[in-house]
Write a structure and sequence with these properties.
Elements (H helix, E strand, L loop, with lengths): L4 H8 L3 H14 L1 H11 L6 E5 L5 H6 L7 E6 L2 H10 L1 H5 L3 E5 L12 E7 L8 H11 E11 L5 H4 L12 H9 L5 E9 L2 E9 L4
Parallel strand pairs: 1-2, 1-4, 2-3, 4-5
Antiparallel strand pairs: 5-7, 6-7
The structure holds S-adenosylmethionine.
Length: 210
């Protein structure tokens, strides 16, 4: 049965009381995909790390212990999600190891070449013009930096049909790979793994060293 539209809208941008419940459920529902994303990201000591659509902030808490001397940033355009993420990461915030920003990934408020590592999970479905977001990600990624994009591909039509097309744009893995390749990255690779019985894909892209 397809997801109800009102739940799909909440996934795109959680709001109100229901948004807090969605944040709580999402944090455990997407944990495996996000853990694997951190594996692909290979965070190193001293990296500046950005999560786009950081939602509940659970993955940023995990990123914080991947290496030493990190500077973490999360951006999301949902007030509810940012409140949840701030509560979850109060210690990191108090020690200035993390900043959580309100903003749209179509126009992230960061200087060019600001981050060695950028990741985003379960967000591309909601980007109407994904190339706008991807070009901005390439802009703020440092030379030699790595970007990991995690998403459920639309290749399995029956599975994709569970996500209302009015809210979700379920793209085939090869389509997303080709899209990322046109947005300014020097190299792009796709990885796939079954999680909870369905394919999950990760695009791993790099900027060149110069
Ligand atoms: C489905 S949730 C995924 C949250 C988290 N990344 C995860 O994997 O559990 C999508 C999140 O991305 C945020 N989001 C979607 N589009 C966005 C945009 N254009 N700019 C900033 N945040 C966005 C939503 O507010 C929401 O918190």
């Amino acid at each position: 049965m397809p997801k109800a539209e009102f739940i799909a809208r909440q996934s795109r941008r959680p709001s109100g009381l229901l948004g807090y419940i969605v944040a709580w459920v999402m944090a455990s529902e997407t944990a495996q995909e996000n853990n694997r994303t951190l594996d692909h990201l290979a965070i190193a000591d001293g990296d500046r790390v950005l999560e786009i659509g950081c939602g509940h902030g659970t993955t940023l808490s995990k990123a914080a212990v991947c290496a030493d001397n990190l500077k973490l940033t999360g951006i999301d355009f949902s007030d509810v999600m940012l409140r949840v993420a701030r509560r979850r990461n109060s210690v990191l915030l108090a020690h200035n190891l993390l900043s959580l920003d309100h903003g749209d990934s179509a126009a992230p408020p960061y200087e060019t070449r600001s981050f060695e590592r950028i990741y985003s999970v379960h967000t591309i479905y909601f980007w109407v013009q994904p190339e706008v977001h991807l070009r901005e990600i390439s802009r703020v990624l440092a030379p030699g930096g790595r970007f990991v994009l995690g998403f459920r591909p639309g290749d399995d039509g029956a599975y994709a049909a569970k996500f209302p097309g009015s809210i979700y744009n379920m793209r085939a893995g090869a389509e997303v790979e080709a899209l990322v390749a046109t947005c300014g990255f020097a190299s792009v690779q796709m990885h796939s793994q079954q999680i909870n019985g369905h394919a999950m894909n990760w695009i791993v892209a790099h900027n060149d060293d110069t």
